[in-house]
């Protein structure tokens, strides 16, 4: 079916200098069982126009990482106890709170996992968008802001936007709500856009449209994107680099192709093997990693994957592995790489 | 058909009024969310609904769960019209049919401990003591991959994926005959998805429970569903046994839908078809075939006549003028 239908062409990619640098970020939650180490010594950076994917098991700390970058981790339980978040050369962890309100939205913006938490059920979509847009287009009247809202919604593929704008969130389908939230997040033209599972509620054609739109916005504005997802297909489509998180730590990181074609941490290998395929009929059970990740308030001293790893030996149980790196800058925390890859950092716990 | 029918939707239709004016609300149109839909789910089998955002999947699910009242048409469970029952029959319906929704918050009350949320339906609808109910909760928590010690926590103390497992435990508590699964695994990461999908299959095999599965991930659907119905703007446009559909898509919309599915291979050369135009509004859906404005194969007849359902292979139905 190629005759009259268009085949999609990717917009051109331009990757620039480092915009955001995260160093040894640690956000702990103080709960009644003890200290939950949700974000435990993360290091990564994102360049202008680049998309970094963060993948990992449910509960491993992805959302907490995202929230920490906006300094929105839930208080009083959560505290960022160490680290630096350097945006355009300045550590935003050192900025006073009033300034953070400006940084959020204008510099770092976020699209949340659950669109309902970003939409207020008692106001119409139009009212909420006008309010959000009012922050960036100060002095513009309501009519002008409404016009902008309608334009952004149309750009996001919402049908009959001038009529839908009077709807309340409960009257919209999941996909439409997510497009409204996306429209609000890009309205401030941020430097870094954090997307926390923005497409989980969408079906594939809308997801494809949404991802294309994000890529177009990136090509137009050079925004850096941090894309949190558990969908390996989305990572393959969207990301230039990928970081794999497990139990509060990044256990593997590198160029997309390097990580996907040569997964080097046993967790990443298992993850890649459990993706079902739509190309074949399924007769057998899916491959699945047995067991569960350790509780983040009761972490083992050794490798955090050891209790589920088919290669684990005595050393793995004794000490957390250092970080090893291959020639292409692909890194992984696994004792099996000792002697094969270069050791670049001591264990950080 | 040899299979015993569990649930049947006949001519099922739901229109939502579009109103204007604040005080004297005047109906100015109708959102045709679900329009004359027919399907059935055999006992112990899975039917999946797939299709564009807003095409009416969740509304269909809500009609089955009695969260919405049909405009016309009916839903029957083992031959009984589910929208006319009350009293004890209604209580029984609420244990026979349960749900796991797209948004796990919708089924988890924030102020209750997890074990009370999960056992609520059991205590309300069946004669079960608290002790028995809590024992069942412990068993279910283990079955969905959580720790029994987590029974006394509140929902906000769990991550998104963990909450989805709680929702699944709640849905299983009354030994239902049918579970409506609206995006049951999409919020989970891959290794847990595989576990939950295996779990859903195991539970189906051991309890003979039927599923109505709404999911956008076509790999998930291929793995779990016995039959798939493709919806577009409130209508079913194609329906077939799963492997037959995946190997032989007929409707131009189905072809576009399947071409947009992503694979975990960064070097994949699969061609992505872009559909022209926006998703039309369900308020005034296009005439004739509702897909005609976006269809690469559109013909004159398509905007004028509604295509009728044709059976192209045994059990493989399509509504399209090409056939
Ligand atoms: N308010 C809270 N109080 C205490 N612990 C919390 C709170 N919110 C989250 N946690 C814990 O912090 C850890 C990290 O949670 P986070 O939401 O970052 O996970 P995630 O990687 O985003 O998971 P998912 O893929 O399921 O969204 C989890 O183990 C969770 O149980
Ligand atoms: N209470 C309501 N009032 C008015 N319109 C509604 C209501 N609920 C749903 N709709 C409309 O009905 C149509 C079908 O919505 P539905 O939620 O069933 O879609 P869906 O297929 O589940 O979409 P998604 O994949 O995005 O979840 C949409 O156009 C939606 O906006
Ligand atoms: S009926 Fe016509 S418009 Fe509709 S899908 Fe078939 S060819 Fe396209
Ligand atoms: Mg999360
Ligand atoms: Mg839905």
Task: Please tell me about this protein's structure.
The complex is a heterodimer of chains A (349) and B (323). Chain A has helices at 62-69, 97-106, 115-118, 125-136, 142-155, 161-164, 174-186, 204-221, 232-238, 256-261, 266-273, 314-318, and strands at residues 6-7, 18-31, 34-47, 51-56, 78-87, 90-91, 108-111, 192-196, 224-228, 241-246, 249-255, 323-325, 331-332, 342-345. With 349 residues, chain A is of the alpha/beta class. In chain A, a hairpin with a 2-residue loop joins strand 10 and strand 11. Chain B is an alpha/beta fold and 323 residues long. Chain B has ten helices and 13 strands. Classes of the chains: A alpha/beta (349), B alpha/beta (323). Chains A and B meet through strand 1, helix 7, helix 8, helix 9 and helix 10 of A and helix 5, helix 6, helix 7, helix 8 and helix 9 of B. Strand 1 (6-7) of chain A pairs antiparallel with strand 11 (273-274) of chain B, so a sheet runs across the interface. Bound molecules: adenosine-5'-triphosphate (2 copies), iron/sulfur cluster and magnesium ion (2 copies). One magnesium ion binds at residues 57-58, 102, 182 of chain B.
């Amino acid at each position: 079916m190629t005759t009259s239908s268009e085949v999609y062409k990717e917009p051109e990619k331009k990757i620039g200098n480092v915009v955001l640098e995260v160093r040894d970020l640690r956000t702990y939650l103080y709960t009644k069982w003890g200290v939950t180490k949700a974000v435990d010594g993360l290091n990564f950076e994102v360049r202008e126009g680049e998309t970094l994917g963060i993948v990992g098991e449910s509960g491993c700390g992805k959302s907490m990482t995202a929230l920490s970058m906006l300094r929105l981790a839930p208080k009083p339980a959560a505290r960022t106890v160490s680290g630096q978040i350097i945006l355009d050369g300045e550590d935003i962890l050192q900025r006073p709170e009033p300034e953070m309100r400006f940084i959020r939205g204008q510099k770092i913006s976020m699209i949340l996992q659950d669109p309902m938490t970003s939409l207020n059920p008692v106001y119409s979509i139009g009212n909420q968008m006008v309010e959000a847009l009012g922050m960036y287009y100060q002095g513009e009247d309501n009519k002008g802001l409404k016009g902008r809202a309608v334009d952004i919604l149309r750009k996001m593929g919402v049908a009959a936007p001038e009529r839908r704008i009077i709807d309340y969130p409960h009257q919209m389908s999941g996909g439409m709500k997510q497009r409204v939230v996306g429209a609000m997040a890009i309205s401030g033209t941020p430097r870094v856009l954090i997307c926390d599972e923005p497409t989980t509620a969408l079906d594939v054609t809308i997801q494809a449209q949404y991802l294309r739109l994000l890529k177009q916005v990136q090509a137009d504005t050079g925004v850096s994107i941090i894309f949190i997802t558990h969908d390996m297909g989305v990572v393959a489509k969207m990301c230039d680099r990928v970081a794999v998180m497990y139990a509060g730590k990044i256990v593997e990181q590198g160029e997309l192709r390097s990580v996907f074609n040569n997964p080097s941490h046993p967790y990443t290998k298992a993850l890649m093997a459990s993706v079902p395929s739509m190309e074949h009929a399924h007769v057998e059970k899916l491959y699945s990693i047995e067991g569960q990740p350790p509780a983040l308030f009761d972490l083992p001293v050794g490798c955090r994957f050891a209790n589920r790893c088919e290669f684990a030996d005595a050393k793995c149980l004794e000490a957390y592995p250092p970080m090893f790196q291959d020639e292409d800058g692909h890194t992984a925390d696994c004792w099996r790489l000792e002697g094969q890859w270069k050791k670049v950092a001591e264990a950080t716990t | 058909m040899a299979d015993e029918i569990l649930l049947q939707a006949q001519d099922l239709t739901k229109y939502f009024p579009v109103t204007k004016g604040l005080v004297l609300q005047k109906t100015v149109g109708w959102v045709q969310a679900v329009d004359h839909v027919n399907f059935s789910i055999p006992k112990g089998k899975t039917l999946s609904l797939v299709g564009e955002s807003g095409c009416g999947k969740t509304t269909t699910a809500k009609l089955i769960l009695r969260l919405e009242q049909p405009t016309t048409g009916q839903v029957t469970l083992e031959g009984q019209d589910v929208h006319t029952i009350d009293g004890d029959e209604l209580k029984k319906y609420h244990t026979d049919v349960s749900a796991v929704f797209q948004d796990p918050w919708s089924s988890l009350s924030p102020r209750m401990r997890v074990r009370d949320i999960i056992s609520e339906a059991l205590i309300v609808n069946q004669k079960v003591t608290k002790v028995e109910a809590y024992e069942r909760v412990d068993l279910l928590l283990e079955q969905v991959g959580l720790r029994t010690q987590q029974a006394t926590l509140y929902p906000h103390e769990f991550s998104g994926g963990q909450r989805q497992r709680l929702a699944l435990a709640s849905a299983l508590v009354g030994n239902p005959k049918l579970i409506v699964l609206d995006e049951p695994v999409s919020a989970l990461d891959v290794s847990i998805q595989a576990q939950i999908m295996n779990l859903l299959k195991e539970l189906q095999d051991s309890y003979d429970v039927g599923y109505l599965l709404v999911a956008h991930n076509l790999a998930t659907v291929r793995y779990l569903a016995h039959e798939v119905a493709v919806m577009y703007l409130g209508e079913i446009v194609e329906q077939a046994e799963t492997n037959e559909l995946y190997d032989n898509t007929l409707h131009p919309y189905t072809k576009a839908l399947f071409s947009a599915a992503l694979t975990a291979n960064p070097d994949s050369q699969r061609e992505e078809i872009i559909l022209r135009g926006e998703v039309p509004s369900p308020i005034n859906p296009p005439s004739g075939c509702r897909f005609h404005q976006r269809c690469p194969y559109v013909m004159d007849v398509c905007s004028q006549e509604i295509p009728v359902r044709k059976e192209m292979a045994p059990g493989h139905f399509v509504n399209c003028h090409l056939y």
